[in-house]
């Protein structure tokens, strides 16, 4: 069940009371510092912490949490309330879904990206060294509580990162969501409306292919190039947010689709224009193409050595899987750099 709305604290308190089970909370210190006042009924002794960001997604952090739970006598009937960004939800979800062969958990995403993406879909994850999300389970949160109340404390770059995934879902869904997402919401009720429609896009795809055997790979639109850009800038020491990399990935992959005669000029331009309107210019130096291609080679979606992308045919029609050549991507990267702006 996904709940959307305002006054999350009251709703959650009622739901916890009616669940009538032992409850523990997992959060990060940063998130708890901002929001512990919102949940005064959370018993302090029953709040556990994971580190912020990717540091949460390590086997060491998971091991520590399991140890603390065991010492505190956390048992099979315990319900875990997970409050935080995507990394926290991935890691806490992994710990919950494996401790004593699985505890029930509820997700409360506190970043925009986690609201529209990580909290919904039932993928939990740890990283294996530098390899992202290599360890994990398929286990859905029993409930997800989505509220724009948490957006007030997010930095601009985090909001834009979430907007990248929002734009991707709108591209998958087509009209009327595509047009609705051309404006930044102005108040809580506009946010609630947009978030509920946006999460429904991911949920419907996940429901049709929970274990990621085919259809779900449409959700990888923008991610073949996006992941490679994210890794490139991370290794260069100038990291960019995941959803911002995905947004540029969507635009570059639209140019790839145009070059392959899969999408019309009009629809391709609608995508690149939308990305230009919301996201800072990437300023890609094509001399770095080969380094970018090395990251694409490692993509899990490739078949033997063939690159496989999820490309748009039009707004509202994305398909998997198209074989893409390095020459086509080079062309798209040059075009993206030279678009009239
Ligand atoms: N499981 C999935 O389906 C899925 C989907 C997309 C992304 N992810 C994962 O999500 C992670 C990225 O998530 P993210 O973008 O939310 O970043 P994040 O979870 O790393 O959070 C970024 C920072 O923001 C802080 N923060 C969280 N909420 C805040 C708030 N309301 N106010 C102020 N600070 C806040 C966090 O403590 C952290 O320091 C990646 O690890 C990615 O792999 C998972």
Task: Provide structural commentary.
Strand 4, helix 4 (86-98) and strand 5 form a beta-alpha-beta unit. The protein has helices at residues 8-19, 29-35, 59-71, 86-98, 112-118, 156-173, 177-180, 188-208, 223-236, 242-259, 265-278, 289-297, 326-338; strands at residues 2-4, 23-28, 47-50, 79-84, 104-109, 126-128, 131-135, 143-146, 307-314, 317-324. It has a 6-stranded parallel sheet, sandwiched between helices. A two-stranded antiparallel ribbon has the order 6-7. A two-stranded antiparallel ribbon has the order 9-10. The protein folds into 2 domains: 2-154, Rossmann fold, CATH 3.40.50.1970; 157-341, Dehydroquinate synthase-like, alpha domain, CATH 1.20.1090. The protein is α/β, with parallel strands linked by helices and 341 residues long. The longest helix has 21 residues, at 188-208. The mean pLDDT is 95. Helix content is 48%, strand content 16%. The chain is built from 13 helices and 10 strands. The structure holds nicotinamide-adenine-dinucleotide. The site of nicotinamide-adenine-dinucleotide has 31 residues, from helix 2, helix 4, helix 5, strand 7 and helix 6.
Would you spell out the secondary-structure blueprint of this structure?
Elements: E1 2-4, H1 8-19, E2 23-28, H2 29-35, E3 47-50, H3 59-71, E4 79-84, H4 86-98, E5 104-109, H5 112-118, E6 126-128, E7 131-135, E8 143-146, H6 156-173, H7 177-180, H8 188-208, H9 223-236, H10 242-259, H11 265-278, H12 289-297, E9 307-314, E10 317-324, H13 326-338
Parallel strand pairs: 1-8, 2-3, 2-4, 4-5, 5-8
Antiparallel strand pairs: 6-7, 9-10
Bound molecules: nicotinamide-adenine-dinucleotide (NAD).
The site of nicotinamide-adenine-dinucleotide has 31 residues, from helix 2, helix 4, helix 5, strand 7 and helix 6.
């Amino acid at each position: 069940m996904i709940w959307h709305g305002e006054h999350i604290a009251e709703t959650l308190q009622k739901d916890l009371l009616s669940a009538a089970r032992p409850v523990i909370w997992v959060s990060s210190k940063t998130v708890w510092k901002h929001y512990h006042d919102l949940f005064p009924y959370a018993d302090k002794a029953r709040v556990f912490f994971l580190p912020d960001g990717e540091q949460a997604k390590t086997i060491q952090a998971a091991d520590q949490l399991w140890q603390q739970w065991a010492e505190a006598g956390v048992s099979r009937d315990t319900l875990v309330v997970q409050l935080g960004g995507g990394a926290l939800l991935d890691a806490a979800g992994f710990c919950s879904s494996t401790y004593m062969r699985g505890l029930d958990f509820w997700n409360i995403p506190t970043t925009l990206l986690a609201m529209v993406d990580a909290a919904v879909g039932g993928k939990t994850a740890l990283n294996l060294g530098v390899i992202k999300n290599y360890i994990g389970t398929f286990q859905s949160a029993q409930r997800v509580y989505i509220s724009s109340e948490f957006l007030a404390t997010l930095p601009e770059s985090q909001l834009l990162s979430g907007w990248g995934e929002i734009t991707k879902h709108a591209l998958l869904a087509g009209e009327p969501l595509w047009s609705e997402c051309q404006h930044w919401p102005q108040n809580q009720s506009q946010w609630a409306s947009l978030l509920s429609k946006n999460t429904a896009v991911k949920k419907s795809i996940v429901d049709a292919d929970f274990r990621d055997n085919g259809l779900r790979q449409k959700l990888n639109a923008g991610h073949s190039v996006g992941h490679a850009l994210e890794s490139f800038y991370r290794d260069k020491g100038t990291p960019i947010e995941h959803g911002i990399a995905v947004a540029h990935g969507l635009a570059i992959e639209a140019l790839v689709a145009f070059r392959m005669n899969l999408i019309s000029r009009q629809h391709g331009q609608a995508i690149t224009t939308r990305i230009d309107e919301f996201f800072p210019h990437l300023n890609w130096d094509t001399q770095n193409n080969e380094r970018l291609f090395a990251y694409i080679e490692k993509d899990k979606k490739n078949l033997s050595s063939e690159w496989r992308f999820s490309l748009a045919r039009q707004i509202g029609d994305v398909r998997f899987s198209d074989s893409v050549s390095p020459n086509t991507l080079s062309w798209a990267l040059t075009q993206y750099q030279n678009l009239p702006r």
